[in-house]
Amino acid sequence: MSEIEEREIIEKFEDFLKKFYFKELARVVEEGRTSVNINFKELEKFSVEIADLLLEEPMKTLELFKRSIDAIDLPFEESKEIEIRFFNLPESRMVAIKDIRSKHIGKLICIDGLVRQTSDVRPVSCLVTFECPACGTMIEQEQDERMIRQPFRCPNCGRKGKFKVIKRKFIDTQRIVLEESPETLEGGEQPRRISVFLRKDLVDPQIVKKTCPGSRVQVIGVVVEVPLPLKGGGESTRYDLMIEANNILPSEKEFEEIELTPEDEKEIRKLASDPKIYKKLRDSIAPTIYGYKIIKEAIALQLFGGVKKIMTDGTERRGDIHILLVGDPGVAKSQLLRYVSKLAPKARYVSGKGTTGAGLTAAVVRDEFVRGWSLEAGALVLANKSVVCIDEIDKMDKDDRVAMHEAMELQIVTISKANIQATLRCETTILAAANPKLGRFDPYQPIPEQIDIPPTLINRFDLIFTIQDKPRREIDEKIATHMLEIAKEPELKHPVIPPEMIKKYIAYAKRVCKPKLSDEAIKELKNFYATLRGKAVSAESEVKPIPISPRQLEALVRLAEASARVRLSNTVTRSDARRAIRLLRHCLSEVGIDYETGQFDIDRIVTGITTAQRSRIVTVKEIIAGLENKYKDSPIPITEIVEEAKSKGIEATKTEEVIDKMKRDGEIFEPKHGFIKRVIFR
Ligand code: ADP
Ligand code: MG
What we know:
Layout: H1 3-30, E1 35-39, H2 40-46, H3 48-56, H4 58-71, E2 83-87, E3 108-119, E4 122-131, E5 138-142, E6 164-180, E7 193-199, H5 205-210, E8 216-227, E9 239-250, H6 262-272, H7 277-284, H8 293-304, E10 309-310, E11 316-317, E12 323-327, H9 333-340, E13 348-351, E14 362-367, E15 372-377, H10 379-382, E16 387-391, H11 398-409, E17 412-417, E18 420-425, E19 429-434, H12 455-458, E20 463-467, H13 473-488, H14 499-512, E21 516-517, H15 519-538, H16 550-566, E22 571-572, H17 574-590, H18 603-606, H19 616-631, E23 636-637, H20 638-647, H21 652-664, E24 668-669, E25 675-678
Parallel strand pairs: 1-2, 7-9, 12-19, 12-20, 13-16, 16-19, 21-22
Antiparallel strand pairs: 3-6, 3-8, 3-15, 4-5, 4-6, 6-7, 8-9, 10-11, 14-15, 17-18, 23-25, 24-25
The structure holds adenosine-5'-diphosphate (ADP) and magnesium ion.
């Protein structure tokens, strides 16, 4: 750009501001704000040339625009600078994070994504005033590197060397990491990320609140290249791309944002009034997986969800329905979860182990760039208002385990570590799967004891299904036929309602209806709950069953509400209540609670088994329990366990194997060589 061109640009932009933004600028000054938001489309209409220039050479052009503001006669406070921020960039400048390339360097673009990580807000000195020790001249020097840059020589006396720092001017900066939003990903792709630098008023508290991890934002900014630091110093030839933000705007696109045409609406209404709709929905969930009708029905209700309630005292009751599947390996749990994660917008599939550093909830991590700490959101936070399918939840991180309690019930994640304190929202529905404690269900042990998840956490699941891989001839044959048919012709088992339609249906139902309980439904639920509670209290079995608590009542309400939503009805009827009761009763009876007696019915599980048939683990455990009586609090000699096991027909090597496994599982430990002790949880 020549000097004349530059002056033209400044004048032209000044004209533009005077014509369209004079009032706004005056208001900015009056309210003490430090930036003005300008609609790019208006600038484009005013002058295509300077609008193009802004897109192509944003750094330089913004500099010139700032000079235009200086030229306008406004009642400025001294030294107050006004930033110019743009919104409404043309469609052609919307770039997906995964598509950012070197050709974008230095250009103005617009990206959309989820805030994955936010650093502390830190001051950076941008302008330092030095004093010349020889003649006392004040020298101002702009700073844009990490190290403070000293003046080369004093402009007055020509002295070289060290100068004294007199004054620093600071600006606030923050680094955030944006992650590609999930709906732009094509099946199975991992979301890409990019760092974004925010400066000045973009880190004002009211903006920071809207850009916390998990929120969805649009960033308008310039792509810059940052050399990757080399270990030994020196400049690297490799670069990382980042965004220097010009503007950041919160955007909310959830379930409700799915666009529906009038035809869609008509079709949804038709589906909802179909008397067979519950069956149709059920059969549309993972049609390639054989059986599991009741689980699929529960998942269908889960996707529709109950109604979130805000009490008069300001507390909230979640509407999300959490479901846990515990089952033997190879019964298609993972498969089912993967399918469901494709049925809801923004949904995620994660594995309890092997998720990123932030895991499921949130974490505080070191941030190299601002030399401070960063808050990183985990899957539950990123999937706020949607569904997360957590596979192998029993293997999740210890920290997550603690945070999950709060996440599931209060639907927030609070984190307080280093100097970061934050509360993140996670109104997230959870569908989780786990393997039994010993890898496989032991048919001779009560099931609740075999689920390796703390009871307090189990209690937060509305429904728990157990899946046992028992060989049963006719079913096995059917599964085999089903699987082989699919292998032969994958198109054969297409869902009754296509996934796209299900998404729309759910979005529509969530948007238009907030069902309320009818009197009959209340009566139905009350009866069921009261009898169940009454019976459970009288139960005095040794094994603690899954406790029946008011949480189950809330679960029933949510399930019944979801059932009403399927019909797009605002009234929860008696049959909705009955559907909810049927599902809960099924789950309770699966884990061994007999509905009729309320007793934990161990007989149903252990009928006709001799000691010799019991698995070794159970026997060894019993031996240990027996010896505990003898040794009280002191450690038990392993030799004695082996001896006793031998008398019951278990070889020494097998017993040692079992002991090793128990040690690895953290059930026992070896306080001194050759002795073990049971780990007791209080
Ligand atoms: P899990 O996670 O429970 O260990 P997977 O989801 O990995 O099991 O399933 C193992 C395989 O067995 C998958 O390929 C799945 O399709 C198949 N499979 C198991 N049970 C069924 C079933 N009922 N219908 C169809 N496929 C099944
Ligand atoms: Mg699995």
